[in-house]
Amino acid sequence: MRPKKVYLECFGCQMNAFDTEVLESMLEGEGFVISKDPSEADAILVNTCSVRENAERRAIGRLNDLSRHKGAVLAVCGCMAQRLGDRLFELVTALDIVAGPDSYAALPSAISAAVSGEGRKVLVEKDGSVTYRLRSVSGSSPSRYLSITRGCENYCSYCIVPYVRGTFRSKDACAVIEELGLLEASGTKEVTLLGQNVMAYRSEDCGFVDLLGRILEETDIERIRFLTTHPRDVDNGIFTLMAETDRICPHIHLPFQAGSDRILSIMNRGYTSSVYLDIIDRARALRPDIAFTTDIIVGFPGETEDDFEETLAMVEKVRFDSAFTFKYSPREGTKSAGLEDDVPVEVKKSRLETLNTTIQRIRMEIVAARIGSVEEILLDARVIKGEYQFLKGRTPHFRNVLVESENWNPGDTVSVVLRELSNFTFIGEEITGR
Ligand code: SF4
Prior knowledge:
The chain is an alpha/beta fold. It has helices at 14-29, 53-66, 79-84, 88-91, 107-115, 161-165, 173-185, 208-218, 237-244, 261-266, 273-286, 305-318, 345-368; strands at residues 5-10, 33-35, 43-48, 73-78, 97-99, 121-123, 143-147, 149-150, 169-170, 190-194, 202-203, 206-207, 223-227, 251-253, 291-298, 322-327, 374-385, 388-394, 400-403, 413-422, 425-433.
């Protein structure tokens, strides 16, 4: 009997991208073949996001679009599946399976059963002990993600994540080291450790900085990155490590969300702007060239012009390399959805514009100051731009670089001079290679 084919699609964040890789390795472990074409698949699985209403609307639209493949079992997983559960059968009538983020171990057998004609299934049990391990690695990529924590219990008042991803848990440290061994053997040079709050990592007596110490000792992974950090969990030890070795890349994504302490408190963020600035100062005292990126929300309920000015002031003080910026929109099921969304849309739009202009100005000042400098770039992919073929890579500070070269391949680390800018991306000229 020919092996069953399954086609996967993924919406959302890096955590979902990693989960999709885990699902692929689980399904292959159960004898499925991963197909790149939904029209030939026996089953179609879509991993979804729930961070904003729009993300759900897009996923539901895509599921209904994919339901035209009549012969295939249609399954949905991820945060939207957890949030909406069996309500999804009304929104996507061709749907067969709904599985939340803690139920993936049961998905391969549920899909097999559905392919053999068994009825609909809803798998949305929460299980705070679940952490998924990569059993195998398909393909070879110089840069990969690895989740080390799951879930979150911070309950920021605007955020749906704790309700869909469940309680916070850390993966066993030995399991992390073993997975890194698998990735290294597949040719990976750079790993981004993932979690909603990676610095809160703790497995028995192994905290986040201890884990990094083990990774530095027990693996030869060249570049170690991590994403995302909550200011409340920042451990000074990370900056000491960054000062001691370039293998821990000098870049931290540290969402601050708002500059006003009053708004931070309504957001239930658990820190003040002075605490946040103190983290930045401590980091720069130990590693002066460290780069920071962040997330910012404008137009949160009750935000005044003065509150917004405090957000702008924070951006000027910290000088972020870049930022993800959002207009506040209420999310059903979160605490702040109960607040009056009293900042007019026009005001949200103009604040977002002002904020983005400020961030882009600072970003350009930061990258322009690097022109002429020499940087080590890990090349991770080929890109075609017009008639030119480039190799794409990143500096240790997470800045994008394009290099034109016939000598090099993804996975190589090259020294380049940063010659010019194309928007915020450097065009580099190779010096030497290894
Ligand atoms: S820390 Fe806050 S914003 Fe981040 S995932 Fe947890 S609840 Fe959401």
